[in-house]
Automatic annotation (TrEMBL):
Short name of any one Pfam family annotated for the protein: Cupin_2
HTH cro/C1-type domain span: 15-69
One GO molecular-function entry: DNA binding
Protein name per Swiss-Prot or TrEMBL: XRE family transcriptional regulator
Domain of life: Bacteria
GO cellular component: cytosol
Family matches, as Gene3D superfamilies: Jelly Rolls, lambda repressor-like DNA-binding domains
Keywords for this protein: DNA-binding
Length: 204
């Protein structure tokens, strides 16, 4: 995270609770996630400053959706999200603000406001689930490494996120909506083909 604020009490409380539920020591979570024990201690105290990579490493190590770390466990029936009050997860190229988590049938769906800065490439080593991206403004080159696509305003792409993938602007900055779709049970086989196409959708 950067100028958007510190990790805050929600991530700190969730990380501590999730670690306790799994009877994991800080040392064991550090080993599984590849994150230094001191860094984990700072995150649990609310004083850490996690990057996108750090949060995804914790998500993979704990086998949970990212939203399980970033959202309060009890939400009211009506939710209004103000962008000014959102924490920002940042990397060298991308700023993410998580807007909403939805539990739909056998999937967990996370909705993000995603801003991509020019001049840098965001690399992801992969994580469970699918990524859906809708570009709001700018031109974005995105997708699995070696199979990226250029998207303009209103364009949409879906791809499996398990392998390495990248985000890169073409020209100026990009505003987009990122939707991450995970299986609710990480051990369950996926029932439907990833990004199943209808007749009106262009294939890669």
């Amino acid at each position: 995270m950067s100028e958007g604020g510190a990790a805050g009490p929600v991530l700190a409380a969730n990380l501590k609770a999730l670690r306790a539920e799994r009877s994991l020591s800080l040392s064991e979570l550090a080993r599984r996630s590849g994150i230094a024990k001191g860094t984990l201690s700072q995150l649990e105290s609310g004083s850490g400053n996690p990057t996108i990579e750090t949060v995804f490493s914790l998500s993979n190590a704990l086998r949970i959706p990212v939203s399980s770390l970033l959202t309060e466990r009890v939400l009211p029936d009506v939710v209004v999200v103000r962008s000014a009050g959102l924490d920002v997860l940042s990397s060298n190229a991308v700023d993410l603000r998580m807007l909403r988590r939805l539990d739909v049938a056998s999937s967990v769906v996370e909705v993000y406001d995603q801003r991509v800065r020019p001049g840098q490439v965001q690399h992801s080593g992969g994580h469970p689930g699918l990524e859906h991206v809708v570009v709001v403004s700018g031109v974005l080159r995105v997708g699995p490494e070696g199979h990226t696509h250029e998207l303009g305003p209103g364009d949409y792409v879906c791809f499996p996120a398990q392998g390495p993938h990248t985000y890169e602007t073409v020209g100026g900055p990009v505003a987009s909506v990122l939707i991450l779709e995970y299986p609710a049970d990480p051990d369950a086989p996926r029932a439907a083909a990833p990004c199943a196409l209808d007749p009106h959708v262009d294939s890669p």
